[in-house]
Design brief:
The chain is built from 4 helices and 10 strands; from the N terminus they run H-E-E-E-E-E-E-E-E-H-E-H-E-H. By secondary structure, the protein is of the alpha+beta class. It has 2 domains: 85 residues, Immunoglobulin-like, CATH 2.60.40; 89 residues.
Length: 224
């Protein structure tokens, strides 16, 4: 085999290897959720085919419409139920390490005008302290420490059974505690959740708003 032929073969192998590496570049699907009551800006822009190269860091910013404020910037996390990493800051960095939904949630300014927002408050550190206490077996007597309970469950909840709640109610009553147990027809698990996606917010509007007011009335009757 002459030198010219060897050079041609070597060049072809090198070109094929480079094409192969390029073809193996990994991408993930990034979906920008349609904004409601505001605009979302993503930098660099997500292409029409939604394929973004792994390792890219996207930056989300948002502009609310008049009469609205930013609820949160967010991106989705993997899991059985809708879960999000959220930020109430002016921008959010999104690492492209999997398929994600990204966007911004807006809320009427009048709905939160009375709220004093404090950022960066750490309420708990998951995993720092093992939670091995079962509430059912650690109910104090009401004469020692009163623990009024407002318990609410959706009739379509597949995680917490009606039987389990009734067992807890009976145990509380036996210890002399005041208990109110409400079942909400057609509601699923965690209908009190507030998350940035429109489906979860619609569920909260349908069920959460009314029963949150009921819960408030229950505790107001005890505390005031």
């Amino acid at each position: 085999m002459n030198k010219t032929w060897l050079s041609v073969v070597a060049g072809f192998v090198a070109l094929s290897s480079a094409d192969g590496l390029q073809a193996q570049t990994r991408t993930f699907g990034i979906t920008v959720d349609p904004a409601v009551h505001g605009k979302v800006q993503v930098t660099p822009p997500v292409p029409q085919d939604r394929a973004v190269e792994a390792g890219t860091v996207l930056t989300i910013t948002a502009t609310p419409d008049p009469g609205y404020v930013l609820d949160s910037l967010y991106y989705s996390l993997p899991g059985r139920f809708p879960t999000y990493r959220e930020s109430m800051g002016t921008e959010l960095k999104v690492p492209v390490d999997g398929n994600k939904r990204i966007g911004a949630s807006f809320i009427e300014a009048s709905a939160v005008a009375h709220i004093d927002v404090k950022h960066g408050v750490v309420y708990a550190k998951p995993g720092a302290k093992p939670l091995n206490v079962a509430p059912l077996s650690h109910i104090p007597k009401a004469s020692d420490r009163s623990v009024p309970m407002y318990l609410v469950r959706g009739t379509r909840d597949v995680l917490i059974s009606n039987t389990a709640v009734f067992e807890f109610v009976d145990a509380l009553v036996k210890q002399g505690h005041r208990v109110q147990y409400v079942q909400v027809g057609a509601a699923n698990h965690a209908f009190f959740d507030w998350k940035p996606d429109n489906e979860t917010k619609a569920t909260f509007q349908q069920f959460g708003v009314y029963y949150a007011a009921e819960m408030k009335a229950f505790f107001t009757s005890i505390l005031y």
